[in-house]
């Protein structure tokens, strides 16, 4: 009896503190974006679960590649798996000093919600760079969108405190664009049958873990984080194929140029 009453009191207290165990009131969590791949990107994210089932996402970030689209996603899992942000030390499995999307995905998990500017927001929309924010001439992205309850995937609100946000797109050779001369082609895109996408376009540029009130008492690098990725990690990759075609179309404008530089550059291309 006492136990039951205690949990009721805890539940009430949690509700008052806006811990996301109830959808009865707007709940806000924040994340701080930190650079990946030495991109110099930083920023803040706030995620607000609205009482109508929607989700408001606000991102302010800087240090991105000016004038370039940056694919951005909420990563995480409907099972509440605690994926975290990758590090070079832990996740650069080929030791080349650059974290590819494949190397990082084991850490940050699947695309849960694609942070597009309009339209759909499924993993399939995840690389549709035409609907991703473009950094301004100073490399800033200020993004705000409220996703309706219909768009927000099942399980996301429930796991609001164990999500993270990833922005993609880096410029390692500092020429203000994504090009294959820098890191070669994206093997991630290639594995989905889409050649000639610069790896720079898909490599992670920033990552931020939600600092949710509901997680404050728990260690962030729990058992789930340290373990193997959940079996569904690779499932959305196939689904991302369609979006990658869009990505290819966007970069297809200069496909001839890409091919030229690629073949001229074979000695330096990463393998
Ligand atoms: Cu992502």
Oligomer: single chain
How would a textbook summarize the main sheet? 8 strands, antiparallel
- Secondary structure class reads alpha+beta
Question: Which residues form runs of ≥5 with pLDDT under 50?
Answer: 213-242, 252-271
- Share of residues in helices: 25-40%
Describe the protein's architecture and organization.
This protein is α+β, with helices and mostly antiparallel strands. It has helices at 2-16, 88-91, 101-108, 180-183, 187-191, 199-202, 223-226, 235-252, 255-264; strands spanning 27-35, 42-49, 55-62, 72-75, 111-114, 141-147, 164-168, 204-211. The longest helix has 18 residues, at 235-252. Mean pLDDT is 77; it is low at 213-242 and 252-271. Copper (II) ion is lined by residues 73, 75, 111, 166, 168.
Which helices and strands, and how do they pair?
Blueprint: H1 2-16, E1 27-35, E2 42-49, E3 55-62, E4 72-75, H2 88-91, H3 101-108, E5 111-114, E6 141-147, E7 164-168, H4 180-183, H5 187-191, H6 199-202, E8 204-211, H7 223-226, H8 235-252, H9 255-264
Antiparallel strand pairs: 1-2, 1-8, 2-3, 3-6, 4-5, 4-7, 7-8
Bound molecules: copper (II) ion (CU).
């Amino acid at each position: 009896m006492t136990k039951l009453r205690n949990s009721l009191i805890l539940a009430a207290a949690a509700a008052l503190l806006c811990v996301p165990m109830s959808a009865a009131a707007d709940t806000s969590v924040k994340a701080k974006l930190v650079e990946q791949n030495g991109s110099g990107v930083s920023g803040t994210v706030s995620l607000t679960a609205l009482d109508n089932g929607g989700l408001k996402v606000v991102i302010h970030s800087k240090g991105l590649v000016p004038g370039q689209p940056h694919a951005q996603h909420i990563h995480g899992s409907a099972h509440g798996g605690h994926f975290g942000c990758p590090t070079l030390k832990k996740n650069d499995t080929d030791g080349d000093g650059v974290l590819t999307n494949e190397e990082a995905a084991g850490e940050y998990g699947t695309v849960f919600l694609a942070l597009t500017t309009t339209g759909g927001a499924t993993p399939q929309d995840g690389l549709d760079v035409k609907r991703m924010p473009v950094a301004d001439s100073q490399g800033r992205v200020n993004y705000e969108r409220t996703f309706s309850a219909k768009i927000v995937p099942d399980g996301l609100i429930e796991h609001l405190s164990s999500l993270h946000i990833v922005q993609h797109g880096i410029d390692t050779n500092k020429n203000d664009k994504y090009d294959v001369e820098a890191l070669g082609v994206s093997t991630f895109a290639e594995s989905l049958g889409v050649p000639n996408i610069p790896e720079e376009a898909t490599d992670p540029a920033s990552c931020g873990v939600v600092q949710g009130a509901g997680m404050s008492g728990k260690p962030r690098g729990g058992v789930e984080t340290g373990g193997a990725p959940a079996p569904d990690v690779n499932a959305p990759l196939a689904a991302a194929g369609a979006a990658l075609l869009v990505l290819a179309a966007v970069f297809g404008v200069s496909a001839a140029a890409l091919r030229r530089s690629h073949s001229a550059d074979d000695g330096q291309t990463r393998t």
